Amino acid sequence: MSTTDHSARSGSPATPGGTATATATVDVDRSDPAYRAWLKEAVRKVQADANRSADTHLLRFPLPERWGIDLYLKDESTHPTGSLKHRLARSLFLYGLCNGWIRPDKPVIEASSGSTAVSEAYFAKLIGVPFIAVMPRTTSPEKCRLIEFHGGRCHFVDDSRTMYEESAALAERTGGHYMDQFTYAERATDWRGNNNIAESMYQQLRLERYPEPAWIVATAGTGGTSATIARYVHYMQHDTRICVADPENSCFFDGWTHHDPHATADCGSRIEGIGRPRMEPSFVPGAVDRMMKVPDAASVAAVRALETAIGRKAGGSTGTGLWSAFKIVAEMVGQGRTGSVVTLICDPGDRYLDKYYSDDWLAAQGLDIAPYTAAVESFLATGAWPE
């Protein structure tokens, strides 16, 4: 079962420009004592959320002991808002607050296919500002419900490629702030450490038999997570390699492979939360070692295999990363290498019961997961990757 895949050891071009970004109009006196008091309290509340939150678990995927390889999943679904994006949203709110962009009573607007919006709605409610999510009309109803549960409002677009411009225009009309995760994700997070996701992984692996993983596999929506992990690995001088798994209907793989910062895709990704129609500014191609293009049916097959193996449902993006991790493990087995591989549980599967766990949805999308399910079963039984 082939997966398009390229590796490199040299750098790739930096990210492109062309981002539609709108920050808030300056209409508040930054030295006003009332504003400064509000800002201090808002920052305190966001930092207190981090202080209350325990670290997320590092789960083991069962593999045959004789292979000498350990596969782990960093379970980001246990955050208060149920996804990896909780870390990002917290960082973006601190970044926006400390830059003076988020102001009392003015809305925060975000272009998001779901999980980031859920987490940002949570933080907006925490500090008492309105929140509006600009998202494709095809976003799962459960994610929309969660956004509204946290006090946010959903603003739908028919073409996911117009999310950026509509978000910027909405910020202009309302006097609010367009958070723009796709530009600021890679810079809002402290990639040198400070309990970021990469530092957490290495701390949790410290007592394992292979404490320095051979590979960490991430998926890319903004690209911020892969940038944070890769930069941390290089900064700490680890030998770990970074692989980014990309779904169908996303341009990251083509842009990285062909060194094309202007690569685009014609339609939106069916794997919610990852895959983009353009090369996002927060995706840092030169930091990663390898990319794989993963068929959407393979992502669904892998995430269903995860449930069979550990009894946990997860979102489709988890399946994209897990499929690539399986392939890397098979390569290591074939080469007689031992070591560890880490990937992510990005969000819970209960948000997608009507999609990735629905055979009717798969049929409507023309997705046949049977050959990919057979490939996973064959790999788990033999350690070899089906051709």
UniProtKB/TrEMBL annotation:
Reaction catalysis annotation: L-cysteine + H2O = hydrogen sulfide + pyruvate + NH4(+) + H(+)
Region annotated Disordered, chain positions: 1-26
Purpose: A cysteine desulfhydrase that generates hydrogen sulfide, H(2)S. The H(2)S produced by this enzyme modulates the balance between respiration and glycolysis, and contributes to redox homeostasis. Probably eliminates toxic levels of Cys (which can induce oxidative stress).
Broad EC category: lyase
One of the Pfam families matching this protein, by short name: PALP
Similarity comment text for this entry: Belongs to the cysteine synthase/cystathionine beta-synthase family. Cds1 subfamily.
Extent of Low complexity compositional bias: 13-25
SUPFAM superfamilies documented for this protein: Tryptophan synthase beta subunit-like PLP-dependent enzymes (SSF53686)
Segments forming domain Tryptophan synthase beta chain-like PALP: 56-347
Repressor as UniProt keyword: no
Cofactor: pyridoxal 5'-phosphate
Annotated EC: 4.4.1.1
Biased composition regions of type Polar residues, renumbered to the chain: 1-12
Protein's recorded name: L-cysteine desulfhydrase Cds1
Keywords: Cytoplasm, Lyase, Pyridoxal phosphate
N6-(pyridoxal phosphate)lysine sites (modified residues): 85
